[in-house]
Each structure stands twice: as C-alpha cells, then as structure tokens.
Specification:
This protein has 165 residues and is an all-beta fold. Helices cover 0% and strands 66% of the residues. It is built from no helices and eight strands. The relative contact order is 0.23.
C-alpha cells in the first residue's frame, strides 16, 4: 500500500502580504503652480509615513512631513506641514501604484494663514524597498487674502522596518 501526501506552500513578500506594515521616509521636489507661482519658485521637502496592508493590494496609513516653499521677487517663503491619511493601491508586488493623501496642512511663516484641507493624488512605481512617484498637491486655504497652494512634483521614499504581523 502506498500513501502519498502533498503539501503546498505559498510564500509572500512581507511588503505585499496582508497585514504587512512598515515605515516610509522620503524626499520630494516640486514646482508651484497657479497663483502661488507668482510668489514662490521651488519647493522641497521630506515625508514620513506608516503604512499597513489591509489587503494584498490595498494599503492604508498615516503621513506627515515638511515642505519649504522658497520665495521669489522679494516675497517670503513659507512652510507646509501636512498631517493626513494615506491610501494606496498596488496592482502587483512590484510595479505600478496609485494613491492619495488627504488631511490638514499647517502653514508656517509670516503673513500666511494657519492652514487648510489638502489632497495629494500620486502615481508611481514601487518595488520591495523603494517608491518613485509623481504628485499634484493642493491646499485649500479659506483665507480670502491668500490663494490656494498648488504644486506638482516628484518624490521617492524608502521602506524602513518592514515586518509581517
């Protein structure tokens, strides 16, 4: 009598498996657009995020950072500190991703309003360690004397401390 037992194992990378989580640290560079481009010439910043994979393709997390807008033509620059929720869709373990950050941005600097609600859609490429993306960011400022802040740019983030729960 012969007995045959078969087992199957499906290994997953921690980054794309359900319940995986990690921190992301990144850098961004952008160009102001719209009315704010009359007063600022360039923006650069850093980001910090924590992400949890709710499903194999969908991540959710918290994000923050700091972006400095550099003034031009004698105008003062100012800072932007976003605090928000991040949502990401990953089509496969490495490749295309789409996402959006949304929340509240605190503005720093002289003669700036306190802040406003922001939305930041992104499209990019990711692998197990890196994310490269293009984005559009808009802060909806409710001050009648200050224009909404809009910028388009590129960014890269590195995944730190990956772990599977």
């Amino acid at each position: 009598m012969t007995v045959c037992i078969s087992t199957y194992s499906f290994a997953q990378k921690a980054e794309m498996g359900r319940n995986a989580s990690w921190f992301k640290i990144g850098l961004e560079a952008s160009a102001p657009v719209g009315a704010i481009s009359n007063y600022t010439s360039f923006a650069a910043g850093a980001t910090l995020s924590g992400q949890y994979m709710a499903t194999r393709n969908f991540g959710i997390g918290l994000t923050s950072g700091y972006t400095q807008f550099f003034g031009k033509n004698g105008a003062d620059g100012f800072g932007n500190i976003p605090v928000g929720l991040m949502l990401r869709y990953y089509s496969q373990p490495a490749g295309f991703f789409a996402g959006v950050d949304a929340g509240y941005s605190f503005l720093t600097g002289d003669n700036t309003p306190t802040g406003g609600v922001y939305v930041k859609p992104q499209l990019g490429y990711h692998n197990y360690s890196w994310n490269f993306y293009a984005f559009y960011n808009q802060v909806f400022v409710s001050d009648a004397n200050f224009e909404d802040i809009q910028n388009i740019g590129i960014g890269a983030s590195y995944n730190l401390g990956r772990r599977k729960k």
